[in-house]
Task: structure prediction
Amino acid sequence: MAVLDVNVVAADRQVWVGEAKRVIARTSDGEIGILPGHEPVLGVVADGEARILTSNEETIRVQADGGFLSVENNRVIIAADQAELL
Amino acid sequence: MGAQQRVFKQKIRSTSSLRKIFKAMELIAASRIQKAIVRSQSASPYANALTRAVSAVASESNVDHVLTTEPESVTRAAVLVVGPDRGFAGAYSANLLREAEELNRLLRSEGKDVALFTVGGKAENYYTFRDREIEQSWTGISEMPTPENAREIGEALLQSFNAESAENGVDEIYIVFTKFVSSVKHDPEYRRLLPLEVVDADEIASGGASESAKDSAAFPLYEFEPSAEAVLDSLLPRYIDSRILSALLSASASEQASRQAAMHTATENADDLIKTYTRLANTARQAEITQELTEIVGGADALAASSAGD
Result:
């Protein structure tokens, strides 16, 4: 099964990079869930928590404040002004 | 010990204590270059992601944004000069300010007024000494710029960009900084920040990964959340901040590299001076000994002559 290639970056560093089965993030319109094969999206990330379900069934929670999210070809980039692993 | 010898000894002492300072500064700068380069590199994933997103939005949606539209006439341009806080970096700040002056002259010749923004005490002093008005200046950040500093500067610049021309608003924003190419090569250069010209990601990330180059060829059709305008509204200021941050980081790496080179030269010069003074001191000592010998021999001769005469 296809996996998502996830990259979480903050303004001054890379926070997390890896493969995931599912990403849930909060945009200004509400939560967005991304599974492999999702259509390309560019969204504004609202302050809040993003949850990443990795390939090994681990859940990684990231606090992301302000920024954006882009999805294309199973590549997810969450670029936040400030991001921190919880 | 003769007076001449004492003078040389003193010069040797003071030069060797200066040499210690230069050497220490060289080592400090050398360790900071590495840190600055690491900081610059760790900021580049974010810069790359932003650039890619901005290019994607700009290339496929027909959204007009105030930050990307060329103004019909430019009456006033802002110039952000990113300089050092401290000296002891050789020609680093002189080269940078020369570049800034060149840009100023160019803008003036196009009939534009120049509003100055400066980063770093050296740039600030340069312009205040020449009675040039500075809109805003930031000091104390040139060696360790943070994303917050970049954001603060970005906000101030955007504010004046959004203001009307009558109220001290500007129509264009330029940034002058020193680009870090390698530890022995850093070039001062200027770029236009606003209105936005979207450039390739790998041009921004100095020496960073260039993977974005190969897949920036075609952008997929994006769905925008909530809308293209909103995405652009949120992306563009961040993009500006990230451009400013990468300029600040590149400038700080260049500053440390210039300082290291300057201090290395200073240490070598101090070594040369110490050598010269040691030679001179030795000559003085030998001259003194020779003179003393001559005096003793002369005195003994005189004594022998007087006793022989008895």
